[in-house]
Amino acid sequence: MTAILAMSDFLRAPTHGTARPRGFKEWQHFVxxxxxxxxxxxxxxxxxxxxxxxVPRVIVIGHDGTWTxxxxxxxxxxxxxxxxxxxxTIGGNRMTLRPxxxxxxxxxxxxxxxxxxxxxxxxxxxxxxxxxxxxxRLSWLFxxxxxxxxxxxxxxxxxxxxxxxxxxxxxxxxxxxxDDFGWTWGTILPRSSHDPWxxxxxxxxxxxxxxxxxxxxxxxxxxEPAGLYRHSAVQTHFRGALAGGADCTLPAPMRMLLDGDVPxxxxxxxxxxxxxxxxxxxxxxxxxxxxxxxxxxxxxxxxIVLCETNGTVxxxxxxxxxxxxxxxxxxxxxxxx
Length: 337
Known about the structure:
Elements: H1 2-8, E1 24-34, E2 37-47, E3 54-63, E4 67-73, E5 79-81, E6 87-90, E7 93-98, E8 101-108, E9 113-121, E10 126-133, E11 136-154, E12 157-174, E13 182-190, E14 197-205, E15 212-221, E16 224-230, E17 234-239, E18 248-250, E19 268-275, E20 278-295, E21 303-319, E22 322-336
Parallel strand pairs: 18-20
Antiparallel strand pairs: 1-2, 1-12, 2-3, 3-4, 5-6, 6-7, 7-8, 8-9, 9-11, 10-11, 11-12, 13-14, 13-22, 14-15, 15-16, 17-19, 19-20, 20-21, 21-22
InterPro entries: AttH-like_dom_sf (IPR023374)
Protein name: Hydroxyneurosporene synthase (CrtC)
């Protein structure tokens, strides 16, 4: 399994002189389903505008009663991709790909955020290539289940992780933020580390979220895929709207450009999937969310918004003749273009 991860995951950033960075985007995303809360860490490289520079950012947000965090942008000279394509440095922050997972160092002294976490894979990675995204394309690799060990200091509190469950994905492609697409994505992990099930959900839509372009529910049992359900095999229902607004909007100046509590998040997301004798149902109930926003690259008068949402999940059904029934935690992302 570790050999598969080492061969599959590497940085794709076009940093060499002959490469074409125009329109390129790449990010490494980690979610810790910690015992004391949820924590998201994101390293990103984005080509913006007509220049050929890649703009590096580090995002760290956490939920421990309420969402808080920071989006920090660095100069294009403040990042480095190692020759082996397994080591990304942005300022004092670093992500290193290891044969069995990832080593992450966070150092954002201006925001009082720091940490060091080892993410060890306990499930096989899965790759989706060339997903249409408006006029562009996106590829992504995800590891549905890892164990996080280390610490993270945020908002004056230090959180310790000792084998806490976690999720990772790596995304890369060429597209424009604000093009005609939107998505709902979610990572579902059980509260008990002894429960073998892990799930990842994705639904791609147009920007107005009126037309579904593709959807999938990926289910793992321990380290192996147990069920991959796509398109018509997956049904989704969104119910209600979560009362109240976002805990925070990042970067903070974007609050001036967004209209109050819009966009918000649904109160309940119900996902059902079937295939052969398999039947599975997951119900995600939102609790609170943070908004990440940036100007559209397509429309000068619009912004794109990602709502990072934590909540509880109840999963039930039967897969490959085995009953599935557990309560877990979920982090869902609602992207509005």
